[in-house]
Design a protein that fits this description.
By secondary structure, the protein is mainly beta. The protein has helices at 13-21, 23-27; strands spanning 33-40, 43-52, 55-69, 73-82, 90-99. A 5-stranded antiparallel β-sheet has the order 1-2-3-4-5. It is globular, with a radius of gyration of 16 Å. The chain starts with 12 loop residues before the first helix and ends in a 9-residue tail after the last strand.
Length: 108
Amino acid sequence: MQIQETFTVDASPETVWKFFEDIERVARCVPGVQSVDVLGPDRYKVLATQKVGFISATFEMATQIESKEPLKSLALSVRGQERQGRDRQPAVEGSRRLRGHRRRAARG
């Protein structure tokens, strides 16, 4: 499955890039994230709980930045499993890529 979304941020590329480099600020924008631990350069452990109706699950995810092209793109991978329960099967695995494009407005 691939999910793709495009949106415009009213800020300079430098400001947006600085935001994405601050993992704590990014985590505050993601629903369900309870904690983020820095494991090393570009490596993090994320604890998140998701709930659908009366069912909830808490996931522990290892997140790693795979590549960076400053002010243009950031790619990361995520692998995790449910934190509680007997079976603890791998539940989350994937990758994400963020790309930035600079657009200049025509001035008359």
